[in-house]
Automatic annotation (TrEMBL):
Cross-referenced InterPro entries: Gfo/Idh/MocA-like_OxRdtase_N, Gfo/Idh/MocA_oxidrdct_glycsds, GFO_IDH_MocA-like_dom, NAD(P)-bd_dom_sf
Tagged with keyword Transcription: no
The keyword Oxidoreductase belongs to this UniProt entry's keyword annotation: yes
Ranges of residues in domain GFO/IDH/MocA-like oxidoreductase: 157-240
GO MF terms held by the record: nucleotide binding; oxidoreductase activity
Protein's UniProt name: Dehydrogenase
Start and end residues of each Gfo/Idh/MocA-like oxidoreductase N-terminal domain: 5-121
Keywords carried by this UniProt record: Oxidoreductase
Taxonomic superkingdom: Bacteria
Origin species: Gandjariella thermophila
Length: 298
């Protein structure tokens, strides 16, 4: 692009401060133009650190930017991102893209109708070690199963432990989209949640069916004080066992790679990407199916 993409940021919480704002401000193809948050003082602090303006509301922010990035709870994002897309702004979305399937359908439909670019912050997909792993799996083929384990104490302590939506919905909604997305990319589209169970302590176990006949399992918790935390992803088949090694790329570097793709999409007029809003909608359906299988309501 000959000019930087002007990006407005909605939200000023921990993820916005540590990943969104610095990544957007430092990327050669983007400029953090404006920040709007529920607490104006938080927006002022974040905007001031990166040379951005402070918007009084979403309409003001949208009027001054080419794209809007969101770092807010899923239910808030679904409503505001739909408004931004309806105004013709490209959108950078967090996962999950909504709190309900209906909200995700409305958002995805508006993005499609307006022909804007969209990407969902499935940051692990943009790590170079993940891309190399997926390329090897695709080259070899014939995988029959796999699994993911994502276990830590993030809701017991740390910057996200006080997040109301994370505490309410737990591991499935927070890290579940990452696990589902990676297994889907590795083994083929997840077509069915065969079984699901959630313990009173928010320990999730899922059994998934994939197109082509593969099956996988997922174990998730953000309330286990494990040191070090566990983050594992693997597949197996006639070529043996292949685990995703490393997990070394920091989230901010992954988000920068996401921005590379986003800027390229906008510059070329492309609106399709493996991690666009349609991916977010697919994952929303899977989250809903998992909750239903476990006897949980949305």
């Amino acid at each position: 692009m000959t000019e930087q993409l002007r990006v407005g940021l909605v939200g000023a919480g921990p993820w916005a401060r540590t990943v969104h704002a610095p990544s957007i401000a430092d990327h050669p193809g983007t400029r953090l133009a404006a920040v709007w948050a529920r607490r104006r003082s938080a927006a002022e602090e974040l905007a001031g650190a990166h040379g951005a303006e402070v918007a009084d509301d979403l309409d003001e922010l949208v009027s001054t930017v080419d794209a809007v990035a969101f770092a807010v709870p899923p239910d808030v994002q679904a409503e505001l991102a739909t408004e931004a897309a309806a105004a013709g702004r490209h959108v950078l979305l967090e996962k999950p893209i909504a709190a309900t399937v209906d909200g995700a359908v409305r958002l995805a439909g508006t993005v499609a109708d307006r022909g804007v670019a969209s990407l969902v912050g499935l940051v692990r997909r943009f790590a170079p070690e993940t891309q190399r792993w997926l390329e090897e799996l695709a080259r070899l083929g014939s995988w029959v199963g796999g699994g993911a384990r994502w276990l830590n104490g993030a809701l017991l302590d740390g910057p996200y432990s006080a997040s109301p939506w994370r505490r309410r919905h737990g591991a499935l909604v927070d890290v579940g989209p990452h696990a589902l997305d990676l297994l889907d990319a590795a083994l083929g589209e997840i077509t069915e949640v065969l079984a699901a169970h959630r313990s009173p302590e928010d320990l999730w176990h899922l059994v998934l069916g994939h197109a082509g006949g593969a099956t996988s399992t997922v174990t998730l918790s953000l309330r286990l004080p494990l040191r070090p935390p566990v983050a594992e992803l693997f597949v197996y088949g006639e070529h043996g066992h292949r685990a995703l090694g490393g997990w070394n790329t920091p989230p901010r570097e992954c988000f920068t790679a996401l921005l590379d793709d986003f800027v390229a999409m906008v510059a070329s007029g492309t609106t399709t990407h493996p991690c666009d809003v349609r991916r977010g909608l697919h994952l929303q359906h899977l989250l809903h199916a998992a909750r239903r299988a476990a006897g949980q309501a949305d």
